[in-house]
Amino acid sequence: MADYASLDVNLTSKVAPATEHWREIDALREQHRYFWNDNGGYWVLTQYDDIREAFNTPEIFSNRSIVATDPNPAYRFLPSFSDPPQHMKYRHLLNRWFAPASVNRLAPRIEELARQTIEPLAGLGRIDFIRSYGDGFPVKVFLTAMGLPLDDADFFVEAVHRMSGDTPGRPADLTAWADIGRYWSEKLAARRSQPLDPEVDFVTHLSRCELDGEPLPDADVVDILITLTLGSLDTIKAQLAWCLYHLATHPADRRRLVDDPDLVPSAVEEFLRAYPIVGMARKVTRDHDFHGCPLKSDDMVLLTIQAATRDPRQFPDADQVLIDRFPNRHIAFGASEHRCLGSHLARCELQSSIREWHRLIPDYRLDVEGTLPAHGGLISLRTLPLAWD
Ligand code: HEM
After folding, report:
1. pLDDT exceeds 60 at position 1
2. Fewer CB near the terminus (10 Å): N or C of the chain?
């Protein structure tokens, strides 16, 4: 008889009423420090300290795969699917582009993009936030950060929709992945023959990078660009929607932010903590007893960031959303050398959007009867109907 819990919980594809996913994960964390999930076949760690420790022990918790249900992926996210010391070599090539100083230079443009996207919506009085803002804004910021014109925004929005299967009536379509790969391969070939300014154009920058004294292989460049594309569009859309969902349903918090926009940065940190959208997995390198959890070589382990950032052992009143919470050592962007490359850009996007939205549309409400459904995995709303007078 195994002395660990073996459960069957759908943590990846269930549809449930809006915030139900977190209620379920909170309950699991309080019942089980870890458990084996028969639904997908992987371990689940639930507590903040354990998850931080696992993130910081790459010799046991490897990045050979980060998808709990897929221990031997046929695809490759970069730099995600790499371990030390190789991983740091990739990050050295990428970090500067996404560092606070680089994001600060982009910030006025990001604010302008937010304003330009919201202004035409303000007079409508009723929108689906996800379609009207969540689709359009992150892709514009992404292309701007890549140093590209906005002409190809529709291509990315459509491809990412196909990939995540959120076009009604259409299942996830993995040919979209190939289309995104082809787009970046062609861009790379174009830059190799006609380079642009490597301080402005990210593909030109990558085309000149070296790894171990050799040019960075084309396959690496394309895998990095695919990872950036997939990592930066749906995440921002989902996180922003939860920010607006909270503020639509908590008028007192909304009023505080409208009256005191200086609160926006700490509110964003609290939304990242209280509405955490992603978990990450690791692959076990050797048999190991992790605080009683009998890990075997090649097992997959889900590090449920969504449970960790809501763990009352770390956060007083963890189930309360306190928009001026301090300190707030959440790990919504991860907690190791693999920490989200785009975290500074993401913060800037979230803050600019909330500031501009509430300057232009300070008062609004959910425009829906009953509860809104949300998807698991990347915990996300598929629609967020809002209305205002
Ligand atoms: C709210 C939005 C976002 C959230 C919640 C988020 C969350 C995360 C998390 C949890 C990780 C994994 C860390 C790990 O495996 O240990 C990660 C990695 C990553 N993210 Fe984000 N992310 C967001 C936005 C972005 C954006 C805008 C970009 C691109 C500009 C981006 C690019 C990446 C990349 C490239 C990695 C891999 C880093 C590595 O393995 O070294 N993310 N993100």
Report:
1. no
2. N
pTM over 0.85? The answer is yes
Token digits of residue 143: 């292309």
What is the 346 CA–ligand 1 centroid distance (Å)?
9
The pLDDT of residue 171 is 62
Residue with CA at minimum distance from ligand 1 atom 30? 342
What is the CB neighbour count within 10 angstroms for residue 389?
A: 6
Least confident among 19-33, 173-187, 214-228: 173-187
Distance CA 139, CA 270 (A): 24
Strands 126-128 and 385-387: what pairing?
antiparallel
pLDDT over threshold 70, residue 168: no
Tell the residue nearest (CA) to atom 20 of ligand 1. 340
**pLDDT digits 0-9 by tens, 45-82:** 999 999 999 999 999 999 999 999 999 999 999 999 99
Exposed, middle or buried by CB within 10 Å (0-12, 13-18, 19+), for 106?
Answer: middle
For residue 342 and ligand 1, the question of a CB distance below 6 A is answered with: yes
Atom of ligand 1 nearest to the CA of 345: 27
Atom of ligand 1 at shortest distance to CA of 335?
A: 16
CB of 340 closer than 6 A to ligand 1? yes
